[in-house]
């Protein structure tokens, strides 16, 4: 799989006799320490999440019945435009006849709902956790954008008679061997990271929020890559456009957040203690 | 997979038959009203929904035609527009649709050519038409059905070249494949190279496998300097042999780009930042340079502490960092920052700041281009079209996605639009800030960009209407910068940005949502002025044509002067320099502007108008002497006017009229 963000130099000896690559990649489990935060910020992608899509089989879903129903309408005067979910379903069927969608598309559109749900959850903490104005503005935009995108994904699914998942900030509920569990999407914060973020305030919140949101966005970019590497996926125009938008929007935002992260000023109370 | 291919192709063929046009609705012509001062009271609020029978609000425009997309194309996204002669070429995800607008009130369908791909953005030059294909479902043979395989010889992503010598029968003559496909493209007419034209390819989707297209490199620039990211592919089209069109350069216009997350910084800001960094270093603080640029920043306390803690842990220690840890950080901070930004520290190596452009607007007669490049707005020197050079770059913390660019006619200003949310999201609701999903206007001073203001339509749209700044073009009102712009389901907006700090709306046309119950795609993708007509590509509905009507903001003379400008063809991304032929309307337009601005006494306004009328009626020699006398008087008027440059424009218009006579 190609890397979107550049990889780390391997086994490169850095000044000061510190192996920077050793800082880089201990998987983040439990409490994220400063070391691990550096690793989150510098990591390229979560290889540990590579197998999160259980159903990456290629099964083209063609709505043959719909094809028959539609092709019966041969009169020169077609049905007028219909509003509401029924009309939307008719148009989705027509779209799917032009370009069929696959399980990979469905997995992407449902998985990203949960992914977005968590971004909205933690972005909502900014005002109550003493975030800086710059971070608050960033979170307002994230909430605005991702709420709209959840609507878009939910509509796409329901228009295709697919189950619309209840947005779950913990991840995608699924069954393996009859056991129900929650599968976090790539880049999603662990329960411990969530706790750590919730306990922080002021510049600490800013730092953790940016760190974790960079991790979160990188996960979204990885989900796009996984989607497009599946045969037959992303042929649907709405999925292609949405997934491409997620990739460029979030990659652009990652770079914005990286610089914000570096430049967080020391708070006035800390400064007075120095 | 072959079986699936055959099956989908067959079914998709049938779909074109099924997706046919609905009946055209007839809506009573709404009254023209002035824009409201309070967005909540705006006439665009609360319009009835409907595809063909939506409510409408019109301000100082006359809607002449609402042509419905033809069968097989209605219901499939309409995209960008190009113009040649009396024809409008309208992109559609199912293929180009060509209309004859000889009579703007009655567009006639010339042809609808099936060649599905997205976005199918179109351009035109003489007998050639160009069309962008970006998504993974485009095919070299223009057939429907898509391409399911991840690597395939039949996939087409790039720019198609058609011969339209017979406009009724476009003929595909070349498929120029590119590494990221073509989201949009820009035709560059080079004044110095009449045998060729060039096409700048903008692509924002993923890079193709080298197994599908040789030479494509998916690695990032630091992994491989030949990365397909960070480049504009430049296609050369030999006009005598368009079938030989090919990629001749992959220009790197991003190298050394900085990460300024705010408005462009002035030199004094940069000096101040350098001073702050030096002071921080002297005081024992940590600094680093943003990769591949010379911008030095102070590493904030929290981040420095985080790095120090990491160093403690890395050496297996606990507790507070020691002086040795600080020393280590001092030497390694730069490497950490480099790795965070994913950039090799080698000088001149490109970084992933903006990875590619979304759209580039060229202004060949000035040798300039405005690049709307995802995270940045760029100003480029394109004197040599094959080797564009970056002159300046700006970023803006309110801008999500730099989408398109428009120069003022004199090249002193550049307007960028922000397609926040990708165009499919409703970003004009009450809670969506004015600075978000808007236009940002910059003045160009010494070939650098200086931020002036934002413009967003002063209305409130529903959550069911996708709405954000999109494509537009200048309206050739002399002496002013007036533009018409598409805002998707926010409709079309005409605004004046002559004063870059105070852009304001002067006319609009909007419909209610496509669907009253949910977000459904629709609205104006692009709207451009072409030879007197305002032509809009309505995503869900078809082609709209409108014209300006006189208002307190625009006089009939100004409209007449605008209509005197005639183009043989227009690609909005290739800005022509507007030149006004000498007409009485042009002179009167300037008089109207001086009156509006109260920069000539009402007495003189009357006298000048009378003199112009008299000259217009007078026979040749008398006309010439009358115009000559008027020009001499205007010389004196300029000295007493609060807008001397405008009086000078008027004087020149009068002199040019005289030259026509004699």
Which helices and strands occur, and which strands form pairs?
The complex is a heterodimer of chains A (274) and B (662).
Chain A: H1 20-24, H2 34-42, H3 64-71, H4 84-98, H5 103-123, H6 133-159, E1 172-176, E2 179-183, H7 191-199, H8 203-228, H9 237-263, H10 268-273
Antiparallel strand pairs in A: 1-2
Helix pairs in contact in A: 2-8, 5-6, 5-8, 7-8, 8-9
Chain B: H1 2-18, E1 56-59, E2 61-68, E3 78-84, E4 87-92, E5 97-100, E6 108-112, E7 119-125, E8 128-133, E9 158-163, E10 171-177, E11 184-189, E12 196-202, E13 232-238, E14 246-251, H2 267-282, E15 287-289, E16 296-298, H3 301-314, H4 323-341, E17 359-363, E18 368-373, E19 376-381, E20 389-394, E21 402-407, E22 413-418, E23 439-445, E24 448-455, E25 472-475, E26 482-486, E27 492-496, E28 504-511, E29 524-530, E30 533-538, E31 542-548, H5 556-563, E32 569-570, H6 584-596, H7 602-617, H8 620-640, H9 644-661
Antiparallel strand pairs in B: 1-28, 2-31, 3-4, 3-32, 4-5, 5-6, 7-8, 8-9, 9-10, 11-12, 12-13, 13-14, 15-16, 17-18, 18-19, 19-20, 21-22, 22-23, 23-24, 25-26, 26-27, 27-28, 29-30, 30-31
Helix pairs in contact in B: 3-4, 5-6, 6-7, 6-9, 7-8, 8-9
Q: What's the number of helices of chain A?
A: 10
Overall shape of chain B: it is: globular
Largest interface: A-B, 100 and 104 residues
Q: Strands of the biggest beta sheet of chain B: in what spatial order? A: 1-28-27-26-25
Instruction: Report low-confidence residues of chain B grouped into runs of 5 or more.
Output: 1-30, 259-266, 343-354
Whole-Å distance between the termini of chain A? 47 Å
Structural class of chain A: mainly alpha
The counted number of beta strands of chain A is 2
Order of helices and strands of chain A: HHHHHHEEHHHH
Oligomeric state as shown? heterodimer
Count of DSSP-assigned helices of chain B? 9
**Average residue-wise pLDDT of chain A:** 75
How much of the sequence lies in strands of chain B comes to 25-35%
* Mean pLDDT over the full residue set of chain B: 88
CATH topology-level fold name of the largest domain in chain B:
Methylamine Dehydrogenase, Chain H
* Major sheet: arrangement of strands of chain A: 1-2
How many structural domains are formed by the residues of chain B? Answer: 3
How many runs of DSSP E, i.e. beta strands of chain B?
Answer: 32
Structural class category of chain B:
alpha+beta
